[in-house]
Design brief:
The N and C termini lie far apart (about 45 Å). The chain is globular and about 50 Å long. Strands 1-9-8-2-5-3-4 form a seven-stranded mixed sheet, sandwiched between helices. Strands 6-7 form a two-stranded antiparallel ribbon. The chain has one domain. It has about 290 residues and is of the alpha/beta class. A hairpin with a 2-residue loop joins strand 6 and strand 7. Helix content is about 45%, strand content about 20%.
Length: about 290
């Protein structure tokens, strides 16, 4: 039923969907107050210099932008290539293309900033090389099918994070872009790197570090920003280069720095509703443990 509703709504133009976004914002933020305490607590810890009024105002912008992204994701089910490429602009993609043309696969990291789905879909169209996204399968079969269909409609390929090393090594020498989004909270079974992030002790997946060192791929960061409503730009920059024989955890540390820098520049566009800090740092954990 949800899939049918989503596909029906996706036929509406974005102008109408943005009107729906205001309704979503009002219901989620004002009526049901969905995770408002989580968002405001996260913001207050991360920006201690802001007043309560400033935190509340920033929280409202977070919910408004999130509602916009939700309806944009609906619209992407019906996007044609021209419309998508008009709405997502890539800057500096030549540095990735130079690597790929030399036969080097690249590891492209990103964060849950702005509209991640649009960025991945547009990258499938903009680059003449395969794009593979590492992801964690959803428990709901209908949602899993819908997400898989959305991510692969322009030729992208999904890699189950439970078998990522095997999948990467099977095509180790194939020039392609492998994307990793590692700013969500790892669970207790994941190898975790602990550091200070947004003013709090925070655990991160070690996957970017492990994959980079295992494959000797160069690592880039894709920073996405909102130009105006419904239009985004993506900037690429190299954050790590093999051989990785320097200090331990240099890749993950560079990634975390890039993510934090991006969030501080536009905090209203990050996924603050996620319970990012629900797992405290264990007393026995060391940095990189």
């Amino acid at each position: 039923m949800l899939t049918l509703i989503a596909r029906s709504l996706s036929m509406l133009p974005l102008a109408l969907l943005y009107r729906l976004a205001w309704s979503i914002y009002f219901i989620v933020y004002r009526v049901f107050r969905v995770r408002r305490k989580v968002v405001e607590t996260n913001l207050a810890y991360s920006f201690p210099a802001k007043s309560d009024e400033e935190i509340t105002a920033l929280g409202r912008r977070v919910y408004r932008n999130y509602a916009d992204v939700l309806v944009e994701m609906l619209r992407s089910l019906r996007f044609d290539e021209r419309e998508l490429l008009e709405r997502v602009q890539f800057n500096g993609r030549g540095i990735l293309e130079d690597e790929l043309k030399r036969g080097r696969p690249v590891l492209l990291t990103a964060a849950h900033q702005c509209n991640l789905e649009w960025m991945l879909l547009a990258a499938c169209l903009r680059f003449d090389f395969p794009l593979e996204a590492v992801y964690r399968p959803l428990a709901n079969p209908a949602m899993e099918k819908a997400m898989t269909s959305a991510y692969t409609r322009f030729g992208g390929r999904l890699i189950d994070d439970r078998s990522v090393i095997k999948a990467v090594m099977e095509r180790r020498s194939v020039p392609r872009i492998i994307t990793l989004v590692s700013d969500q909270a790892p669970n207790t079974k994941d190898e975790t790197y602990w550091t200070r992030f947004l003013n709090r002790e925070t655990g991160f997946f070690l996957a970017p570090e492990i994959i980079a060192r295992f494959t000797e791929y160069p690592v880039y960061f894709a920073g996405m920003r909102r130009r105006t409503r419904g239009f985004y730009s993506v900037e690429f920059k190299k954050i790590a280069e093999p051989p990785y024989k320097g200090r331990a955890n240099e890749v993950i540390a560079a990634y975390i720095h890039a993510v934090e820098e991006q969030i501080l520049a536009a905090p209203e566009d990050w996924l603050w509703m996620h319970r990012r800090w629900k797992r405290p740092r264990p007393v026995y954990a060391k940095t990189g443990a």
